[in-house]
Every structure is written in C-alpha cells, then in structure tokens.
C-alpha cells in the first residue's frame, strides 16, 4: 500500500509519478450535506477504514474555542449564532491542514467548502494533487431536526438549528451545484441506517475513483 502511494509534491513534480497516479488516485473527498445529514459520522468511519485523515472544520473551530486560542476567541460568538466564520479565516485553516504530509494519500473534508469562494479556494489548493470527489448525503428535513435535537451540542438548540439550516440553503447549497456542473458529485440517501450508508459510500468511491 505504502509504496504505491503518491505524495502530492511528487505528483506535481513528475510526469512519471503522474502516470502512477492514474491507478493510485488519492482519495480526496468532500462529504456534503445539511447539518444533521450524518456526514460527520460517515466521514469518521470512512477516514478510519481507509486510513486517511478526516478534516472537520467544525471540530477544528470547536477545539480552538475549547483551548481558548486566539482563533477560538474570534469565532466563539459566530458559532453560537449558527453563522459562518469568514472565508479568509477558514480557508487559511484548511490550507494549513492540507499542507501536512498525512494528506498525501487523501483526506475527507467535513464542513468545508461551505461557500462558493471556499470551493474556488479548494480547487486552487488541490491543483496538481488529484482534485476532489463529493459525496452528498440527502436526508429528509424532519429526520435532520430529530437527529440534531438528539445530538445535544451547544449550537444545537432549536433557534440556532433553524439558523444553520437557513445558512445551508443560502450559502452552501450553491456549492453542491458548482460541483454538480462538473460531474463531481455522488448523491446518496442518508436516511438509511449508518452501516448501509457507509457501504453505499464505499461503493460509490470505488466506482468513481478506482
Ligand atoms: P454541522 O455538522 O452542524 O454542519 P459543523 O460542525 O460543520 O456543523 O460546523 C459548526 C459551525 O462551525 C458552523 O455553524 C459555522 O459557524 C462554523 N463552520 C464550520 N465550517 C465552516 C466553514 N467551512 N465556513 C464557515 N464556517 C464554518
């Protein structure tokens, strides 16, 4: 497995390696869906199974708040309100994370990109390292509300949930369209039991990225 893997830097440097990359495409994935679609859970499972890092911008921001870092202090109120933090900030956080060597064989992004400028920035960051495929989980609205109410996170009270769903419709749904136009999306039914969804994701990735 290891000797087949292709580092991002090598791909952009060498034609020979680029040929290898045709058979060993890095698993660069974006998990997409409204809050409560189960993308975080599925991203965890997928990353674990395929031994690639999961990069959740929500987790990164919540940890920054917990640790009381400068960024944490900056974004605390924004998360409480269910609004989005600035594109510049989140893009620089993701850029730094994708620079780490553990992403060379691929990664699962959870919660990013959430706006069109973020999607454009991701394209630029991934130039020469294989691009992305998007797994979009579709879930019925009432199931979303039920799951979020069960989760009990700080920003999961009814008002903030409504806010986050509205932000999703306005800012984030167009990102899906952006990828759809480029035929980079697999839409999967996220209403099913966890294991079934995981299997469907694996099958889709095998099909699209083999
Ligand atoms: P959910 O799983 O409910 O979609 P996340 O854990 O992904 O929520 O994100 C929680 C909060 O973190 C968001 O409501 C937003 O305030 C902030 N956030 C996370 N990712 C981004 C992003 N890519 N751009 C802007 N804000 C973000």
* Radius of gyration (Å): 17 Å
Which residue ranges are poorly predicted, with pLDDT under 50 across at least 5 consecutive positions? 1-22
In the CATH classification, which architecture applies? 3-Layer(aba) Sandwich
Order of helices and strands: HHEHEHHHEHEHHEH
Task: Output the strand order for the largest sheet.
Answer: 2-3-1-4-5
Could you give the distance between the termini? 14 Å
* Helix amount: 55-70%
State mean pLDDT (0 to 100 scale): 87
Using brief descriptors, characterize the structure shown.
alpha/beta, five-stranded parallel beta sheet, Rossmann fold, disordered N terminus, 210 residues, globular
Topology of this structure?
Layout: H1 8-13, H2 15-23, E1 27-32, H3 39-50, E2 54-56, H4 57-67, H5 70-81, H6 87-98, E3 106-110, H7 116-125, E4 133-138, H8 141-151, H9 158-181, E5 185-189, H10 194-209
Parallel strand pairs: 1-3, 1-4, 2-3, 4-5
Summarize the structure in short.
The protein has helices spanning about 10-15, 15-25, 40-50, 55-65, 70-80, 85-100, 115-125, 140-150, 160-180, 195-210, and strands at about 25-30, 55, 105-110, 135-140, 185-190. It has about 210 residues and is α/β, with parallel strands linked by helices. The chain is globular.
